[in-house]
Design goal:
This protein has about 325 residues and is an alpha/beta fold. It folds into 2 domains: about 180 residues, NAD(P)-binding Rossmann-like Domain (Rossmann fold, 3-Layer(aba) Sandwich), CATH 3.40.50.720; about 100 residues, UDP-galactose 4-epimerase, domain 1, CATH 3.90.25.10. About 40% of the residues lie in helices and about 20% in strands. The protein is built from 11 helices and 12 strands. The strands form 3 sheets. The protein has an 8-stranded parallel beta sheet, sandwiched between helices. Helix 3 links the parallel strand 4 and strand 5. The longest helix is centred in the first third of the chain and has 22 residues.
Length: about 325
């Protein structure tokens, strides 16, 4: 049975990856420091699975990383990077410490380094652009030293197990709670989104086909939606699944017009990344509908999440900032 280590496996992307690996009959060693949006609630259904082992690990602490690597003895290592509430310098230093720990482990404990097929590092649009740019340069530095690293940068994604820190779950939370839904409108400008299952498909494709030392960028659907269209899609699904006492959920939407200029829109950082795209058989609207239905079918998870992360779904400004636009003061 193939052994896999996942660092950051209690967060949104990591949790979805771990579930997929378990479904694929892998032996998964799951590591997370639980200091950010990662939480054990995401892994509740996996804790009794025989092929899943969870342990706390801070990637910025060398001894913890080395112990985790020795425990897992993994064939493939996945790393989900999404630093929160840290300075740029601290985040980059944590990444460097992790990469140094990988070098030390391979040089000292791996008799045949070729046994570790790949180290796949995932960078998300949730990361600060300055961090992402410098992180990619740092990853390249260690790839040049011989670490079999493949990096994959992805746009904002959505799906199950996502806390209301980004656009799609934020809109779902507000609608489900009957709260007003402030929606930043940029005219016809769309928001780049991709379903989490497409991100997981891309990661597994990289495991088999990605070239060590290369850095890739996942291209999302050619079909994209505006913020208003995303909100309306969510409301349409809720109208069908849990009709409100009167009217429609669309009545909660409050469009906020802002000027579409470079000060309000954060463009993707310009880096030399290899464009990469997988075919998909589902539309983005279908994926949003599936996500809404997942939240409705997991009421225990939702209730605990909305309580624990109350400040997130009550704070539109921070959510829109992460999504690439800054919400003006009302």
């Amino acid at each position: 049975m193939k052994r896999v280590a996942v660092f950051g496996g209690a967060g949104f992307l990591g949790t979805n990856l771990v579930h997929r690996l378990i479904d694929d009959k892998r032996q998964v060693y799951n590591f997370d420091n639980l200091s950010g949006l990662g939480n054990l609630l995401n892994l509740a259904d996996l804790m009794q699975k025989p092929h899943h082992v969870f342990a706390r690990c801070d990637v910025s602490v060398s001894d913890e990383v080395r112990q985790a690597l020795l425990t897992a003895a993994a064939d493939t290592i996945f790393v989900s990077i999404a630093p929160r509430n840290k300075s740029l310098e601290a985040s980059l230093e944590g990444l460097r410490t992790f990469l140094e720990s990988l070098v030390h482990w391979r040089n000292r404990f791996v008799r045949n380094p070729d046994n570790v097929q790949k180290i796949i590092i995932l960078l998300t649009k949730n990361c600060d652009a300055d961090f992402s740019e410098q992180a990619i340069q740092l990853i390249k530095e260690y790839a040049d030293k011989g670490l079999p690293i493949v990096s994959l940068s992805v746009p904002l994604s959505f799906g199950p197990f996502q806390q209301p820190d980004t656009l799609t779950p934020y809109l779902i939370y507000r609608a489900l709670e009957g709260e007003s839904i402030p929606v930043i409108s940029l005219g016809n400008k769309t928001t780049l989104l991709t379903p989490v299952k497409d991100v997981i498909d891309a990661l597994l494709f990289m495991e088999e086909n990605g070239q060590p030392g290369e850095q890739y960028r996942l291209i999302p659907y050619s079909e994209q939606l505006t913020n208003l269209e995303i909100a309306e899609t969510i409301c349409e699904v809720l109208n069908e699944e849990v009709p409100p006492p009167m009217g429609k959920y669309q009545a909660l939407i409050e469009p906020i017009e802002i000027e579409d200029d470079s000060e309000n829109v954060i463009e993707d950082y310009e880096l030399d990344l290899i464009p990469f795209k997988l075919p998909s058989s589902h539309s983005i609207k279908e994926s949003i509908a599936e996500t809404v239905k997942w939240y409705l079918s997991h009421p225990d998870w939702y209730r605990q999440s909305k309580t624990k992360y109350f400040d997130l779904w009550q704070n539109p400004r921070n959510v829109y900032k992460l999504s690439g636009v800054e919400q003006p003061e009302k």
